[in-house]
Amino acid sequence: MNNTDISTNAPLFPANNFSGSIGGKKLASIHTYAPHQEKLEKLIGITLKKYFRNFNGQNINVIEIGTGAGLTSKIILDADQRIHLKSVDNEPKMVREAKKNLAEYVRCGRTEIIQKDALEYLKSVKRQSADCLASALTIHNFERKYREKIIREIFRILKPGGIFINADKYVPDNEKEYQKEYSWQMAQFEKAPDNDARNGWIEHYKIDNRPEIIMKEHESVELMKRIGFVDVVTSNRHHLEMLLTATKA
Known about the structure:
Elements: H1 30-33, H2 35-51, E1 60-65, H3 71-79, E2 83-89, H4 92-101, H5 103-107, E3 111-115, H6 118-124, E4 130-136, H7 144-157, E5 158-169, H8 175-190, H9 195-208, H10 217-227, E6 230-238, E7 241-247
Parallel strand pairs: 1-2, 1-4, 2-3, 4-5
Antiparallel strand pairs: 5-7, 6-7
Helix pairs in contact: 2-3, 6-7
C-alpha cells in the first residue's frame, strides 16, 4: 500500500472528526502509535503554569477547542487551580466520554463542556474575554478557510496579554523531512493489531494530507502574524507535531 496516496472519497467538512472507528475511547490509542503526542499535550499544562505564574487575577479564563475525551482538558485544569475552562467539541461521542472523564471538575464548577461547532461557539464569545485559548491535535483537522476563521476569532476573544497555546500537527516546511516523518508515522499505524484502529488512523492521516486541509508550519506562523499575534514561537518538534504559542499585545 502507498500510504502517501490521498483518498478522493474522503469527506470535506470543517473538521476531520472522530465519529467513526477511532472515536470515543479508541481516540486515546493514538498515544500507542505516536507517544510523543502525549508529551506535547502535557506541555500545554507546563506552558500555562509558567505563563500565569505571576497572574494577579482571581480566575484564569481558558477556552479549549476540541475536548476529545477530556485528556488535555484535565491537563489544563490541573495546571492552576484558578483556571476555569470552557471546552467545545462538535462530536457527541467525544462529549459523552469527556463528561464522564471530567465529572469531578464539572461538579465543582471549574469546567463546562459544550457540544457545538467550534467556529459557531467562538463567534458567540465576547470580545477580549479569555485569558487563554488552548488546543491539542484539533486545529490541523480543519479545512484551511475554516481554520483561518478560527484563528481570527481566537485573536478577537483573547484579552490583551492573552496567550494561544496549540500542540498540533504542523507540517515541516522541508518537503523531504515531511515525507520522512509521514512515512514513519504511517509505519507505526501499520503495526496496530486492531484493524479498526489501524485503518481508522491511516485514513485520518490521509485526510489531513489533503491540499484543502494540510497545515504547514511556515504558512501558519505567517497567518498568525498577519492577523496580529506577536511572539509567535514554535518549539518542541517531534516528528509531525510541535508546540506553537502566540500572544496578543
